[in-house]
Amino acid sequence: MQLDHLTMPQFEEALRRTRTIIQPIGAVEEHGPHLPLGTDTLQVQAVARQAAEKSGAIAAPPIPYGVCRSTRDHPGTIGISTTVLRALVIDLGRDFYRQGLRNFIFISGHAGKTHLMTILDAGEELLETLPDARIAVVSEYNEILREGRDIIETEDDSHAGEVETSRLLFLHPDLVRGTAPEEYPGFPPHILVRDKRRYWKGGVWGNPGRASAEKGESLTKIAVRHLAGIISRLESQEVPEPPRAP
Ligand SMILES: [Zn+2]
Description:
By secondary structure, the chain is an alpha/beta fold. The chain has helices at about 10-15, 40-55, 80-100, 115-130, 160-170, 195-200, 215-235; strands at about 20-25, 60, 105-110, 135-140. It has a four-stranded parallel beta sheet with strand order 2-1-3-4, sandwiched between helices. α2 packs across α5 (about 160-170), α3 (about 80-100) packs parallel to α4 and α5 packs across α7 (about 215-235). The N and C termini lie far apart (about 40 Å).
């Protein structure tokens, strides 16, 4: 089920069958010269929808923006601040709860460290304030696709490379404009740099030349299966009763 496709009575009816909502979070971020700016959103939205179908949960429409740091100087990257992302996740969590939902999965297609930490921080805040809510924060790329490392030939592939180009070739071949040269950025360790593009010219991290739609299909299946597994573990989790007032 997709939240934004349901009518009011359909939502009420859905609540009798599930209390679980998946909130995908993407980004508008450069993905080399060959992939669309919404790559992270497109990937996570597809996985959220398919996992919702598989598990009977509700998939919310994706948050299309994220916190982007290392690509912010590249043309096309449009980001939001950690303050806004944190507030947005907390606001949505509170409204999910107010509408009767109890299991929330915030899954991000964008794997920026600051971005993920912000979602995690918002999740912890919701956990403190909503006593019987169960919350999972998932990085699609870092956690779910670990199993896919057998499929991927490029060792250090992370951004607009073999993995993401494969996934887009499977999900949206019409949005893939050819390919791009293999590239690995050389940011100096520990030191924060102002001119990020100087260290990451093409905006690719990995090797798009090794991508295929077949690999993309396998990786998508892995991601859907893992997300469905997280949903069922979250739904069956024992949550202690909130302490009663004396
Ligand atoms: Zn990406």
